[in-house]
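Database export, one record per block. Field names are fixed; values are copied verbatim from the stored entry.
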Amino acid sequence: MVLRRWLRGLFGTSLTWALAWLLPAPFILHGYFSVYGNLPSGLIWRVVYVFCVRGAIAGLFFGGVLMIAERRHPIESMLQRRFVLWGAAGALILPVITTAAALLHGFGTVLDVALNLGGNALLGAVCASGTLAVASRSGRHNIDASMGADSLMGEHTSSLTALTSPSPAPVPLPARTTSR
């Protein structure tokens, strides 16, 4: 049961971050167009794909890091700066690995590394801050996926709250009555 809630929280965080990481894609495409004058066919879809996948992986890493590091703390008691730092750390895991591999093979410059890591850390911090804001807001309004909240954000934030809080004691179900 707890594992299913954790997986649902990781999936919701991953999906939400994948969509949020699409926001910088138009700026990247505009920069490419302003430098080269035209967009090769298929570039738009490749950029969208890359940003979605990187956002999903960063959200997955963020949820995993948060689940491990802040397991005993309810989401209401977490400080925003710690949450933002975990978001930046989760967003930096994959780029550090890929950038190190690229540098070992002679690709990239110091500026490329700084822009790649800085941009990923900034996106991770912004997404973590937004995730905390949505999770805190849903906690105040008592949105709970088990109560039938059908919006993705309601499921995502209640799952995120489940990721960071210790598992509650089981609640007994009411007795089923049969009427004939």
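Remark 1: The CA atoms of residues 139 and 158 lie 8 Å apart.
Remark 2: The chain has one domain: 2-164.
End of record.
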